[in-house]
Amino acid sequence: MTSPVWHPYAHLKTQTPAPKVVGGEGAHFTLESGERLLDATCSWWCMIHGYRHPRLVNAIREQAGELCHVMLGGLTHEPADRLARELVRITPEGLNHVFYSDSGSVGMEVAMKMALQYQVLTGHPEKQRMLSLMKAYHGDTTGCMAVCDPEEGMHSLFSSLLPEHHFAPAPKAGFDATPDQVALDLAALREVLVRHHHEIAALLMEPLLQAAGGLNMTSPEYLRGARALCDEFGVLLIFDEVATGFGRTGKLFAADHAEVTPDIMVLSKGLTGGYLGHAATLAHDRVHDAFIGDSEHHAFMHGPTFMGNPLACRVALESLRVFEEEDYLGKIATLNGLLQRELRDDKTLNGHPDVADVRVLGATAVIEARSAQALKGVGDFARQRGVWLRPIGRFLYTMPAYITSEPEMTHITDVMKAWFLTRNA
Ligand SMILES: *Cc1c(COP(=O)(O)O)cnc(C)c1O
Predict the structure, then answer these.
(1) In CATH, what number does 58-324 get?
(2) Residue 54: in which H helix or E strand, if any?
């Protein structure tokens, strides 16, 4: 009998049965068949410590023996308080307030509601729309779908249901671009703001790495320019660091590359090391303080049942400790060197007729194929060679766990290259 489990993003008619995972260790997971697969994606980028990390598993066990869950409405607990203090410590100066929720999408919904209410409370009730970027992906809930790329994004079916927001072109200048190249992107952003700022509450973006929307890698200079434009036009700046947070771009947060402080910042995926679903929306003092007042509109009307879940907070605290004690930024730098050498600098790969571009940033690498068709079958090809790869459209990428060893990383890059270079040889 086929399983009643309905899989995400799957065509039910053509999908092949999903292999059953029975366990994992480090960068590998194990299938029922006994196959061990090296996970090149660390499970949608969240399992940054790999599978069955003893310290993370222990943290959950210990917390489970004390307190598994309690509501955050009117109550608090040690893990929620301690994690909030840690998040304030490690994020840019001024982000001093933490609103918990249970997933990246909900964390973004919270950010958008917060921005809109901030504008109402500070005397700008006409600022009701968001400004997003083309190629953006911010989640699959209704509010989030409305700020995903409306053309290439996967939510066009629902457009009549969604509020209409504004979009600026996706930045084209890459990570190392000169200020002149970035100026063109910023001019395009400015143009939208000049026309529509009176109705825009916030500009939201995935800083430096537009992830699910096509692994578009952009410049720290763009973040600085966006910050200045937001200040000029009375628009809040929201960084969706759900994918980029916790080291993915080479620094703890993408914001750190630019030394830019957003007004609101959203964290999820790597927050708990992937061991439990959770998210945090951090607010700057100036946003938070606008909510201090006497009217009924001053309360923030949001409160997911599982916000601040003690198990999730406790494992997030342990994840952060391991990250800092074991020099994860050093590990990420090593992986980055390897990805540059093996993929970005490989002349044959870059010259292959099916390859449009090869990009690397932090512990992220993508081979952009000329079409999705050119990647048809790559998942099976990789699996036969002991690697789990799952491309997004025409983008074949790796976002490995940071504990991936150099030989393991090389195995992954070898398989990615082999798909293009040796398959038909
Ligand atoms: C994955 C992702 C989300 C959505 O997070 P979920 O936990 O899947 O709801 C939002 N923004 C970005 C940038 C993401 O990569």
Answers:
(1) 3.40.640.10
(2) helix 54-66
